[in-house]
Design brief:
Layout lengths: L2 H14 L3 H20 L5 E5 L6 E10 L8 E3 H7 L8 E5 L5 H30 L5 E10 L2 E5 L4 E4 L15 E12 L2 E7 L3 H11 L1 H4 L3 E9 L3 E8 L6 H6 L4 H9 L4 E6 L4 H8 L7 E5 L4 E6 L4 H5 L4 H10 L2 E6 H19 L1
Helix pairs in contact: 2-4, 5-8, 9-11
Length: about 350
């Protein structure tokens, strides 16, 4: 190796953040293995790389003994004193044994070590960068689809959108730019694996944070989100300032803000409702767009009975029960929905049963 190689290590340290000393230590360790592999030595050897000139030297390390049992590992006190009269029994003597053609082997080995260490350092940097961004939103372009997994180009690396995290019916074409949610970052033998999601409720939350300045600055907060990806989402918001309408802030002028989010989610419907600390009001709001006549809550069982006008029953329940299901997820309450006439009939039956009991 030459001084130019050492200069290259200095440059790697500056650009890649890989310590020059660490690289030299790794090179020295690799050169010990290379020496033993190429020269079949069972000696105890040490390799030194000059961090200024790049010169490489191999030393055999021998223990000073009175009687030599193994010439590869031991040296007599007499021979040691010929080298330096200060040596005593038990000391270690280093004798240079650098082969003539070791420079070529050293250069090849050093290159392999440096390439490997740079690759490891870059993987570590990528892992650190993205593991700190878990639960954030990221924009990338569709690179390719492999075995139903969508690989997203994120710049210096790629993320994977597993089938379970893809929105049903959504098409992913090469080159399409899409926003995804960083679900998890894992360390693997092949480097960091970045798992992305298009279905996680967190994606909707982050999209609102990007689109609505009042959410970004804390004027408006998101209380909860319930989502059935690709179909419908309910989001409950509240304002920390009396003069700010939280729903209006999220909808935007002529619906522009929420429209941008709906477009990003390819037409997914979004209901924005106002959170209220009174569970009756909150539950009633959560069933939007249906109108609610009254709500009766059973705090002990965390359940609620909701009464709606007869003509609003199907709207309140929603197609295949979706509206009621999302409302329950949003509020955290078990929700039982009845029409006004159903509730009146139930109340009459209760009265009749009570009268019969009295008889």
């Amino acid at each position: 190796m030459k001084a130019e190689f050492i200069q290259a290590l200095d440059e790697i340290e500056r650009e890649k953040g890989v310590s020059k000393d660490t690289l030299i230590e790794a090179i020295e360790a690799a050169l010990i293995s290379a020496y033993k592999r190429n020269f079949g030595s069972s000696q105890n050897v040490e390799v030194e790389v000059n961090d200024e000139t790049g010169d490489v030297k191999v030393y055999a390390k021998k223990i000073v003994t009175e009687e030599v049992e193994d010439e590869l590992l031991d040296i007599s006190i007499e021979e040691a004193n010929k080298i330096d009269s200060k040596y005593e029994i038990g000391d270690t003597v280093k004798i240079e044994v650098t082969p003539k053609n070791f420079g070529r082997i050293a250069a090849q080995t050093a290159k392999q070590v440096v390439v490997q260490r740079i690759r490891e350092a870059e993987r570590e940097l990528i892992f650190d960068k993205y593991t700190n961004r878990e639960s954030e939103i990221i924009t990338g372009s569709v690179q390719r689809v492999s075995r139903n997994n969508v690989l997203i180009n994120l710049g210096r690396t790629e993320g994977v959108l597993l089938p379970s995290e893809q929105i049903a019916g959504e098409r992913y074409n090469q080159g399409d730019r899409i926003k995804t949610y960083i679900l998890e970052v894992k360390k693997t033998t092949k480097g960091p694996q970045i798992l992305l999601s298009r279905t996680h409720p967190g994606l909707v939350k982050r999209l609102f944070e990007l689109e609505v300045p009042e959410i970004h600055d804390g004027t408006v907060d998101i209380f909860s989100i319930s989502r059935e990806a690709g179909s419908r989402t309910k989001i409950a918001v509240y304002s920390n300032e009396e003069d700010v309408d939280p729903v209006g802030a999220c909808v935007g002028h002529k619906g522009a803000r929420v429209k941008n989010i709906v477009d990003e989610l390819n037409g997914e419907k979004i209901d924005i409702i106002t959170w209220n600390k009174d569970p009756k009001i909150f539950i009633a709001n959560s069933l939007s767009p249906a109108k609610v006549l009254r709500v009766e809550v059973d705090e002990e069982n965390n359940s609620a009975l909701v009464v709606v006008p007869d003509y609003q029953l199907s709207l309140a329940i929603g197609k295949e029960g979706q509206n009621a299901r999302l409302a329950a997820k949003l509020t955290g309450w078990k929700v039982d929905i009845k029409s006004e006439s159903q509730q009146e009939n139930d109340e009459k039956e209760e009265i009749n049963i009570t009268e019969d009991d009295n008889l």
